[in-house]
């Protein structure tokens, strides 16, 4: 980032710290897309990246008055985005590891004794081929009967992200099973 860019950020931060709330609007315009890109680079999930960027702004707003070197706003703010992105991965991995302890085979195969055994096996194989985040949402929604809100709370994701993962998982299952 050029020294000119740093000077602009410094002035906007100083203006905001002095009570000019409009300065924050300009900071958001200058930085929000980069925050989303940085979070997406780490998370590989556009919805989660947007959530992280939004959450990062909350933290930035809460702590910006304590920023001692306003010229370093960019690196300070990106560090917040980076940390929140990594924490999100850790949280999701922890939740995923807890959920992996469930036995997918038993839950899916025991749904209905009268169902076609081949269809159950194919369904199980197809679910296992889905990305892990979609597997978890499918299992929680269909096997555990969680609502989208409960899934979003459990996995620490937005309801929109849970809905999106469920939709994409269903689409992949339909294509594979030709339903």
Automatic annotation (TrEMBL):
InterPro entries: RNA_pol_sigma-70-like (IPR039425), RNA_pol_sigma-70_dom (IPR014284), RNA_pol_sigma70_r2 (IPR007627), RNA_pol_sigma70_r4_t2 (IPR013249), RNA_pol_sigma_r2 (IPR013325), RNA_pol_sigma_r3/r4-like (IPR013324), WH-like_DNA-bd_sf (IPR036388). Residues 27-93 form the RNA polymerase sigma-70 region domain. GO terms for molecular function: DNA binding; sigma factor activity. Residues 122-173 form the RNA polymerase sigma factor 70 region 4 type domain. Keywords: DNA-binding, Sigma factor, Transcription, Transcription regulation. The keyword Transcription applies. GO terms for biological process: DNA-templated transcription initiation. It comes from the Bacteria. Belongs to the sigma-70 factor family. ECF subfamily. NCBIfam families: sigma70-ECF. This is Sigma-70 family RNA polymerase sigma factor. It comes from Flavivirga rizhaonensis. The lineage of its organism: Bacteria, Pseudomonadati, Bacteroidota, Flavobacteriia, Flavobacteriales.
């Amino acid at each position: 980032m050029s020294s000119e860019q740093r000077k602009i950020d410094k002035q906007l931060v100083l203006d905001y710290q002095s009570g000019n709330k409009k300065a924050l609007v300009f900071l958001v315009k200058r930085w929000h897309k980069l925050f989303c890109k940085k979070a997406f680079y780490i998370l590989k999930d556009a919805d989660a990246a947007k959530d992280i960027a939004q959450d990062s702004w909350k933290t930035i707003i809460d702590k910006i008055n304590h920023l001692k070197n306003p010229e370093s706003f960019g690196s300070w703010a990106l560090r917040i985005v980076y940390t929140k992105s990594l924490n999100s991965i850790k949280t999701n991995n922890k939740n995923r590891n807890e959920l992996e302890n469930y036995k997918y085979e038993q839950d899916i195969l025991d749904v209905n004794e009268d169902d076609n055994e081949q269809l159950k096996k194919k369904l199980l194989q197809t679910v296992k081929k889905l990305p892990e985040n979609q597997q978890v949402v499918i299992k929680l929604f269909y096997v555990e009967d969680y609502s989208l809100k409960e899934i979003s709370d459990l996995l620490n994701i937005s309801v929109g992200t849970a809905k999106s993962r469920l939709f994409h998982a269903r689409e992949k299952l339909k294509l594979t099973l030709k339903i």
